[in-house]
Amino acid sequence: MADQTRPRWRAIATRWLGLGLAVVISVVTLGLGLTGRLTLYISPESIWFACVGAVVVLAGAIWSCTLPLGAETDHGHDHGHALADAVAPRRALKLAGVVSAGVVASGVVIAALVLPPASLSVELAMSRADATGTLFAGADTPTLGVADTTTFGVGEWSSVFATATRPEAYDGSTVTLTGFVTRGPDADAVNLTRMVITHCVIDAQPAAVPVSVDAGESGKGQFSTGQFSTGQWIEVTGTVTADSDGSLRVVPASVVEIDEPEDPYEY
């Protein structure tokens, strides 16, 4: 009885590690896609590809249910006792690797089911700020001359601020930008930050633009360092100003506290 039970459980485990995990991930992907939350993990341009892939996996899963349990591991021939004894140690090592990978993969899938979708943390944005360069959309725009900045987000403006060869050309540009508050290099400096992703959250990078602050009490249309906590989402309306040293900053006309947007990233 034990010899018959072992192959059955092995077949069930094999099907779970292959088909089961793929089905769960596909269902989660389609659910996030239908609710609009898949943008927390991948760019909008990739959503259709991910959803189509999930449908293909589910179709394959339905077809595979017509196969007998254990058929995927049946080679249709006998290796013989001598060969079986020779590969036994290798098989044991392979089994240990499969079990370890299965536990990790199962944990990731279960976490995807249990944990609610969430955007990348402010702490991650701040930790990556010192490790990455300015590699955002529009990074080549400043070298080609002044572009139409009316559609620029935090990512594009971050590139302009870092690479513009004619900063005076952007002086006086009006902006309305949304992001979360992070502290700048100085105690009295505040940045407006946004995570920018190209394909998925794995390649996410923080983009930030400096916002002028009022050293005194905050008044209407002014911005003080203690007015908002780090990580608070705000909408800043103001003007880009070029300083005498060639650096650019945003001088706010109004700063409004807002909730985290449904899509917190830029692309």
From TrEMBL:
Record keywords, A-Z: Membrane, Transmembrane, Transmembrane helix
Membrane-crossing residue ranges in chain numbering: 12-35, 47-71, 92-115
A Pfam cross-reference name: DUF1980_C
Tagged with keyword Coiled coil: no
InterPro entries: DUF1980, DUF1980_C, UPF0703_membrane_permease
Coiled coil: none
Domain DUF1980: 165-267
Name of the molecule in the record: TIGR03943 family protein
Organism phylogeny: Bacteria, Bacillati, Actinomycetota, Actinomycetes, Micrococcales
